[in-house]
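TA notes. Do not distribute before section.
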Amino acid sequence: MKEDFLHHIWLHKRIDVNQLYTTKGEKIEILQFGQYLQATGPDFFNAQLIIANQKWAGNIEIHVKSSDWYLHHHETDANYDNVILHVVWEYDSPIFRPDNTEIATLELKKYVAPKELENYNNLISEKNWIYCENQFGTIDSFLLENWKERLYFERLEQKTIYILQLLENYNNDWEAVCFILLAKSFGLNINGEAFAKLAESIPFTVIRKEQSDLNALEALFFGSSGFLSGDNQDTYFLKLQTKWLYLQHKYNLKEELALGIQFYKLRPDNFPTIRLSQLAMLYRLRVNLFTQLLEKRNVKGFYELLMIQSSEYWQSHYTFDAKTVNQPKKLTKTFIDLILVNSVIPLLYVYNKLHSNSESDFILDLLREIKVEKNAVVDKFKVIGCKVDSVVDSQALLHLKREYCDKKQCLKCAIGVSILKN
């Protein structure tokens, strides 16, 4: 037995409230079950009860065993002094307040229907992938669609934490924050954090001053990341190296040698050299990029703005001094979709939220224009019967798997609660 199941029983009133008695045989009438705030202190706040014809107002604490009260040291915590009912699965010890009056206890196992417990045990029994995989295909489509939308915005809210911290660090310079977020997206999963640190290491004032010179931008990006250190006889390498040494001295910049940028496991078109060149070209061609992003109202507009390619040198190279067949290295629509989902849309969401603009519908409409991303998690959800029509769905399912399924938070999930109720 776990406490989260007991929370579920109390929160969703899965007991016959007309026939409840304390362990001492006193009649319990529930006027208010209390608020489930999941905050520090008791589990449910501001409950109202009548116990043995006396009205009580206060908080409710839930445990598997009543002795857990002492195991968790609640007797020394003033936050629990206002508990009016101790709800437990198993009563094994009386609990007393600081004034030595006993706290009324309700032993739940006498009141939970066997079917309720059977459903819970079936839900949490080990499966090959997630607990509810056998029942997932039976979930009501209306409930599932609403839950996926909520999950997406939960995921979006998580991303806002990082963006708000960047805004604080950069004095609400939206263009600077946009640069860092885009750099992170250009690095993908493997180099994303390293690219973000690289972007943070270059003051955006420097980007603004050197934006008209593509060589200067590439020198800044490749130099700061350590790619221009050492000896190399490649003409372009030497050109950038000279430019980097000048800029480094001019702006007092440092090489970020500990970034850990990797080539391993990356397709050549995703090599950090190619992505850094494309990022440099983007900032060479798009002055005040964040402002331009704000003006776009559909995916086509974003594609037109972000559809750039690497500089000429990198059309025939993947690394310095190793020439290959000449091939344009443009940002694909699939890659731009990743940028939109992971950086642009979260940034626009935060901007509109801070400026009191209601843009939720716009965000959803925009996302529905973007093709569903392909990954193992989304593919597995499809196998167990989940419909995936848009990137809202795929992003929601990634969040569901990571924040609910992997953490076994079935009783905080609308799907898990629905299965138990049915």
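Switch to the second chain here.
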Amino acid sequence: MLDCPICQIHHSGENVEILAHFGAFAVRHSEKEKRLKGYLYIEPILHWTSYQDWTTGSFVDFGNALQFATERIYQDHSPLKIYTVTVSEMIPHIHFHLIPRYTEELKGVDYIRLALQGKLPDSSYIRDL
């Protein structure tokens, strides 16, 4: 879809750093504005808006992408936890946020909300801009 920002990333030919492809899915870094080290996305390359678009093989591809992404985050950043979130309301192209948590002071939905907005308090886990 031409007006979908995720489709534009995967089909524009712009220089976006894709960490890996797994069949129907790509793993990439979040935007720097998210300000969180290790924050990754898993996205289908095609404009899929629900799980109904997936094939049996797509679920396998997603599992491989999730394994790669979580291992990469743990290896490179050693978070306490990784939250995996998909809402796909603002952008209907289904996609998954892998949000590492590095603190015990802020957890759960509050942490996720701030991470999605790029508004986590400054700390050593904040990504350099």
